Amino acid sequence: MAYDFRRPTALAREQSRILELAFETFARQWGTQLTTKVRVRCRVELDQVRLQTYDDYTAGLPTLTTMVLLELPDEAPRAVIQFPVGAALTWIGHMLGATAEQAPDAERELTALEQNLVRRLMSDAVEDLRYSLGDLLDVAPVVRSLRFNAQFAQAAGPNEPMVVAAFTVTFGDRSCPATLALPSAALLPQLGGSVPSVAAESADLIAGALELVPLEVSVRLAPVPVRPAQILDLTVGDLISVPHPRTRPLDVAVDDRVLATAAVGSTGSRLACVIVTTEESNR
Hints:
Elements: H1 13-38, E1 42-53, H2 54-59, E2 64-71, E3 79-83, H3 85-95, H4 112-133, E4 142-149, E5 161-171, E6 174-183, H5 184-187, H6 200-210, E7 218-220, H7 228-232, E8 250-254, E9 257-267, E10 270-278
Antiparallel strand pairs: 1-5, 2-3, 2-4, 3-6, 5-6, 7-8, 8-9, 9-10
Helix pairs in contact: 1-4
């Protein structure tokens, strides 16, 4: 897998497994709670757990969505439970006695009354979350507000690492995706890990690893500009003059970037080159 320098952190395998077990417990509890409150058979299944920055997390969400912001005492970033607005309206309709055919299927922001119903629904879900995470979460989250635009929710800083759990919520004959994002600072210390950061020592480790990566180095003459017609008319025996003076060193390049110049030499029975200058500005 290619290394992504924009996202240099990841969960360890042991951390991922512990979190998966906790979020699977939450999924079962949430599904049972939804079934009780919505009065339609519901099931919640965990899809995956990953570590993302808050900016990357919100970038993958729909423009219009329901984001329930949860406050964690002693933690500046807030947690988020997110699900589609259409799902929220359907749950509200069932809570008020609507049948599957009568449940609203629209995409709009919730009214004040609808928001209060969702708050009550999510307060029960937060209790399930606290129970499911157990010792992983030292404090109980509190539902603070609802937002409907992922880009303006501002639950955390853009580069704040978040533990993101993705779920599939099935209610009746419908299903939708949902996510839960928790600040990694609230979970990782209990998992025996530190909060991810791009520190100076991390940069040194990356630089040290890059020094061991093999590269293809080419030693070449100066390039020759030619026209397409000359290339198309080439036949066996044709000559192309190379405007490279005998006194000029050869170019030493990596990925078409000239890093040094060299003179032709040999080592034993093999051809070699002797570096005569380096291009400091291209390093």
